[in-house]
What we know:
The chain is mainly α.
Amino acid sequence: MNRALLKQDAKDAMRAATPHPALTTLAYLAISIAFSMVICAVSIIFGITGALLGSETVGVFSAFISMILAVVLTLLAATIQFGYYVYCLKVFKHEETGVGELFGYFSLFLKIFGLSLWIALFVWLWSLLCFIPGIIAGLRYSQAFFILAENPEKGIRECVNESKLLMSGRLWEFFVLQLSFIPWLILTAITCGIAGLYVTPYTTVTFAGYYLSLKPPTDSQPGYNSYEGNEQGGYRQ
């Protein structure tokens, strides 16, 4: 796979996007951080309340309410994250999109949560054997959210199975693509997360382009180049 060409197409798509993906990413990261802070704050507040009142019943009730709020906020955060995947997919395809994309998929929140839970569960189960099978499982399921983004009518299992089919014989290729972003992740850490405003959309848009390159072209969707020895990437007219 021509990783350099794929990444260049992602950069070109980001430059062409309006507003720039860094602004949408700023909103996405701010919302994600806010949800995390609220979940932590709720847990702490209810935990302190139960301890101060000294009642076992109150403590159990506080823990239950805290758990419910945490689950609700986690569902919302997962839906926002899914919206970000859709946004990056549209950026690579040079389609019109924006910050509003983050908030357009609450009708799918149960399916999104179910898919997240399915993937997390099976990756965890494979990881019990050894961390390598867990990594392999994560790679096999890596395209499921992009599949759901393009086909919201598909079921959870259908998205997972299609992801496994697309990734057949491609696991090492995608793993190396992920590893190629390690210097960018180090830069993000060095800059205390500031570089993440560019690195986050850069990696996700690139992964969206990789997903599109795996899809066979159809009459309704011309498809994208596979980046295997091609001199030109991007949309294949």
